[in-house]
Amino acid sequence: MEQAVSAPDTTRPELELTGSRQFTSWLHEQKASLAFTTYQSGKLFLIGMREDGRLSVFERTFNRCMGLWGGEQTLYMSTLYQLWRFENALKLGETHDGYDRLYVPRLAWTTGDIDAHDVMVDGAGRVIFANTLFSCLATVSDTHSFAPLWHPPYVTRLAAEDRCHLNGLALESGAPAYVTAVSRSDAHEAWRDHRRDGGVLIDVRTNQIVLDGLSMPHSPRMHQGRLWLLDSGNAGFGYVDFKRGRFEPVAFCPGYARGLAFTGDFAVVGLSKPRQNKTFSGLALDDQLREKNIEARCQLQVIDLKRGDVVHSLRIEGVVTELYDVVVLPGVRRPMALGFKTDEIRRVISIGSWPQA
Fold first, then answer.
1. Which of 99, 120, 266, 304 holds its CA 20 to 30 A away from the CA of 259?
2. How far apart are CA 21 and CA 190, in angstroms?
3. What letters, b where the CB count within 10 A reaches 16 and e where it falls short, cover 271-292?
């Protein structure tokens, strides 16, 4: 049977998360947990499994949670005007109230409201993010809001104008390799005029446009030797066929797709209900939903890469309608995190090692 976790309410739950029948079993088989961010409602969710096999859902509130990068011990997350680093406070084998990871916010860079989207950590441990407002890739700075690293060849200067809505970043061999942008425009918010078919995939190393004609693409990721991405406005999840120079759809996404992660032969895709404004209207996604006679969903869906089938899902209903990013936390059974709205953070203290003599 499905497993649901909800907030108490006498009429409609404020928030309800419902896993498909074998969702927790799949987490157990993958020896992993999930984390995802919600855009408008400002939540970081950590999804794992309790000792009794039931779904574990843990949430914390941060303003406009967006880009997320995760590992066994560390999380990075971009928010409204900061980029946060969380570290696990538990030693190997320790638990805290039944949780085997306790992510504590240890460090934050104040970036200002630059609309930071995807966040990655390169092979040298450097944080790199898609600085959407300034149409560039950037890294953090101890003295400034950010330090620019690269911008598309068609962007003539750094300006706080969101010229092309550069949003996605993929690493290859530990270095920035590909970005997605909604258009190749070079004027203030001009990308809004090209949402239906102006999307591009750019090779950062050569400055070449690898693909065009996409619709609001997001979340490029390398996995198993392929570059995968979300053709969000066309309801598509698939990979790039470099030989033919085209996007190969693998699965239909019944919602606005943003956020993509992998574990083994499975992809985890975040879906949102489209906003009722011009940004998300007039896309092919709307036509496909009508043709298939379904409503857009807010959920995580697990896709079998070999068959293209949706095999598991975590459906989200209530106040959360829009997701941004999702990551897989390998080797983690049941994660939690500290925030700033309770006193817990005052009482969780860990001690580092003595300096070496």
1. 99
2. 44
3. bbbbeeeebbeebebeebbeee
Cβ pair 61, 339 in contact under 8 A: yes
* Spatial contact of 98 and 136, defined as CB atoms under 8 Å apart: no
The tokens describing 37, both together, are 């961010």
Count of C-beta atoms within a 10 Å radius of residue 332: 25
Cβ atoms of 53 and 70 closer than 8 Å? no
- Cα distances (Å, whole numbers) of residue 189 to 119, 165, 194, 234: 22, 8, 10, 21
Alpha-carbon distance values, 185 to 93, 209, 220, 229 (Å): 51, 13, 20, 21
Task: State both tokens at 29.
Answer: 């088989």
Structural tokens at position 350: 């860990």
**H-helix or E-strand spanning residue 36:** strand 32-38
Residue-wise pLDDT tens digits, 324-345: 999 999 999 999 999 888 888 8
Whole-angstrom Cα distance, residue 7 to residue 17? 9
Residues 68, 237: Cα–Cα separation, whole Å: 19
Q: pTM of the full predicted structure? A: 0.93
Cβ atoms of residues 206 and 217 within 8 Å: no
